[in-house]
Every structure is written in structure tokens, then in C-alpha cells.
Amino acid sequence: MTLPTPVNSQITDAVTQANVNVLADAPAMALSNLYQIVSSSLGLSLQNATSAQQQSNIVHQASTTQGVNLIYAVDTEAVADGTEKISRADIPSDMLDVLGVVKSLNRKQPSSIVG
Q1: pLDDT value for 52
Q2: How far apart are alpha carbons 7 and 13 in whole angstroms?
Q3: How far is the C-alpha of 84 from the C-alpha of 77, rounded, in Å?
Q4: What is the pLDDT of residues 62-114, one digit of tens each?
Q5: What is the pTM of this model?
Q6: pLDDT of residue 115
Q7: pLDDT value of residue 111
Q8: CA nearest to 53, candidates 61, 41, 42, 43
Q9: What are the CA-CA distances from residue 7 to residues 12, 13, 17 (Å)?
Q10: Would you put residue 109 in left (φ > 0), alpha (ψ -120 to 50) or beta?
Q11: Which residues in 44-60 are b (16+ Cβ under 10 Å) and which e?
Q12: 60 vs 65, 69, 71, CA distance in Å?
């Protein structure tokens, strides 16, 4: 045991106050750690969202480019030739003739057509 001196009580008080200070700081330190973890997680999630949006924009741009290339790759002369052949084939007139035949058959023999 130490001898009582004027310094001993001051040293004891300093050690006691230091221990109390450590105990009082614990909740604040825990809360500050929690805030840092939450802010770090939020920052990472925002970075991931930004990266996903950039990748999505790249995919959309690539698909648009591919679609335009596909449109330009169609041989316009072949399309025009096919359109001309269809327009000269008089298909609408033939369809009207077929429709007239079907209507006339429905009037004469409805039981044999329906069934």
C-alpha cells in the first residue's frame, strides 16, 4: 500500500475519471461505427445502381444499333420486286371472288358447310 501523499489522491482521481470516460464513450463509439457502416453500405448500393444503369444503357444502345442494321440490311430491290408482284397479282379481286363463292354456298347448303 502506498503512503498517503498529496499526489496520490490526484492520481487516483485521474485514473477513475479515465475509466469513467471510456465507459461513457462506448455508446457513442458504437453509434458512430453503425453510422459509418450504414453510409458505406448506402454508397456501395448507389454505385451498384449506377453501374447497372450504365450497363442497361449499353444494352439498349446495342440492340437499337442492331435493329437499325437489320433494317438497312434488307434488300430494298427485292422488297420492291415482291411488292410489285403482289400488286400485279390482283389478290384483292381474287379474295372477293372467293368470298362471293363462300357466301353463295352458305345460302344454298348451310348444314353441310357448318359442322
Answers
A1: 95
A2: 10
A3: 10
A4: 999 998 888 887 777 777 777 777 777 666 777 788 888 888 877 765 555 55
A5: 0.43
A6: 47
A7: 55
A8: 61
A9: 9, 10, 15
A10: beta
A11: eeeeeeeeeeeeeeeee
A12: 9, 14, 17
Rounded CA separation 115/9 (Å): 114
H or E stretch at 61: helix 8-73
Say how far residue 60 (Cα) sits from the centre of its chain: 11
98 neighbors 91 (Cβ within 8 angstroms): no
Residue carrying C-alpha cell 348444314? 111
pLDDT for 100 equals 82
Rounded CA separation 11/108 (Å): 122
Q: Which of these, 69, 89, 86, 68, lies nearest to 78 by C-alpha position?
A: 86
